[in-house]
Amino acid sequence: MRIAAAQLNQVVGDFRGNADRIIAAAQQAAGLGARVLVTPELSLSGYPPEDLLLRAAFHDGCDRALAWVCGATAGLDLYLLVGHPRRRDGLRYNGASLLHRGRVVGAYDKHDLPNYDVFDEERYFEPDNRPLVFEVDGVRFGVLICEDFWYRYAPECAHAAGAQAILAMNASPFHMNKQHARVDKARENVSRLGLPMLAANLVGGQDELVFDGLSFALDGQGGLAAQAPAFREDLLVAELSAGDSPTFAPGTIQPTSPLEEQIYAALVLGVRDYLGKNGFPGAIIGLSGGIDSALTLAIAVDALGAERVRTVMMPSPYTAEISLVDARDMAGRLGVRYDEIPITRCFDAFLGTLADEFRGLPQDTTEENIQARIRGTLLMALSNKYGSIVLTTGNKSEMAVGYATLYGDMAGGFAVIKDIYKTLVYRLSRYRNSLAPVIPERIITRPPSAELKPGQIDQDTLPPYEVLDAIIEAYMERDLSPREIVDLGYEEVDVRRTVAMLKRSEYKRRQAPVGIRVTKRGFGKDWRYPITSRYADEW
Questions:
Q1: Coil, helix or strand for 527?
Q2: Strand 165-170 with 139-145, pairing
Q3: φ/ψ (deg, to 5) at 527
Q4: pLDDT tens digit string along 231-245?
Q5: Which letter does DSSP use for residue 255 in this model?
Q6: Does the N-terminal or the C-terminal CB of the chain have fewer CB atoms within 10 Å?
Q7: Are 284 and 331 in contact (CB under 8 A)?
Q8: Which residues are paired to 41 by β-bridges?
Q9: d(Cα 238, Cα 3) in Å, to the nearest integer?
């Protein structure tokens, strides 16, 4: 028997568009002889709908879209699982409907509701404990929704109800090494019961989240039988044997890419979908001649095409000539529009305006930040005039310790590398150049500098990035105490300094644009620290 998983790129609230993509997948699956098609979690509404779920009209729209799917697939001899929010007895559920010949013939509501990392499903949904098992051509299928197969309870309920195979509907967002975790959990909680499993995962960008697809089939022993590609739509068709112990025959396995390739693809898809789904005609990037803006530019061009990307170099009195040369070089390599708007006159005007106020006071970061804020103002003016969105170029290391100017280089609409540590910026730049040398070598090898004062380099203010990034990762992503980080071998002075900067910068991060999440914990949905706090870490 052929069964299929539709790996779809849905849009939250696009009921008709989402329905049409489900219908197209159903028609394709039926045309290939599939008897069952499973779609991703909340495939009809898009995931995550967040507080739209609190609106009755949102649910009404989902209901109408479900009726549309029923009517459009009535002529197909196909069992179709559609994910959507369900209302029952005045409560909301993360559910699914089983359609056949234009009728709803079964329903399932999610058992385990995730409420950690980027998930807060307990805010919106009630859990349920009833299995759904249905039979097609002598095989009994059990249904699970994403988090359900990360624990034992729901798979055991399906097994106890007679399921011989599992269909899983997923909206599992990408982060580093996520696919290994998914497959391991499926083996732990489903394969131990001797059940083959087909999982359909969402694909595409939704605000800060990127869904990577990689829908997969496991045979009854937990072996990987088939796997869809990452970061693009696909219809995964798998052959399931009949009998008392059905299993998936070996099929096409799209390999999981090396880590740098995965991350780069996630960033490209995140940019493409953020601009595309929100209707922005193009992007504007402040190009500095440094590695962060260079990597952001490469990602933007790969996502949108050179014709939709504009770069602006805004030299100050402290901009090195090689920065101008390298910026021009990279823009030329990628074929994007490149403009230079010097900010010296603007800077002088600011200093003149503030001369009386600043008389007798030494120059400090105030004057540095004025330059950054002039640049932010110019970029936002161009954005307002032409409708293109400003892509900010700050990385995770900078966001963590506040090495960024509020209303300056933080000004913009989408933060492409917000969750990319500086050390990873270099790795991704090397990866991109392995495909084609679009980033000039000097940009990669030069010591990084904000170029806001003479002779400035980042390490004047920060520990070496390999040290800084390791401390941030340990404190932020693993919740280690400063003492535990010191015990790992890092200098206490560096740990104290880094943690103090991280805490002081929370007010800045609250005002930063949304950016693509690629780590287990980014500065977004899954980082919720108070700005006002007198908590002191124990040493």
A1: coil
A2: parallel
A3: -125, 110
A4: 999 999 999 998 888
A5: P
A6: C
A7: no
A8: none
A9: 6
Tokens matching residue 44: 């009809």
Quick: pLDDT tens for 346-388: 999 999 999 999 999 999 999 999 999 999 999 999 999 999 9
Give me 464's structure tokens: 């070496």
Catalytic residues: 41, 110, 146
Domain 2-251 sits in which CATH superfamily?
Carbon-nitrogen hydrolase (3.60.110.10)
Q: Residue 277: how many CA atoms within 13 Å on its side-chain side?
A: 20
Q: CA-CA distance, 142 to 140, in Å (whole number)?
A: 7
Contact criterion met (CB below 8 Å) for 231 and 265: yes
| Alpha carbon 196 to its chain's center | 29
Structure tokens at 113: 């509701």
Four-residue CA torsion sign, 440, 446, 452, 458: positive
For tokens 């009755």, the residue is: 56
DSSP code per residue over 184-221? HHHHHHTGGGT--EEEEE-EEEETTEEEEB--EEE-TT
Domain segments of the chain as ranges:
2-251, 261-458
Question: What homologous superfamily is domain 261-458 in, according to CATH?
Answer: HUPs (3.40.50.620)
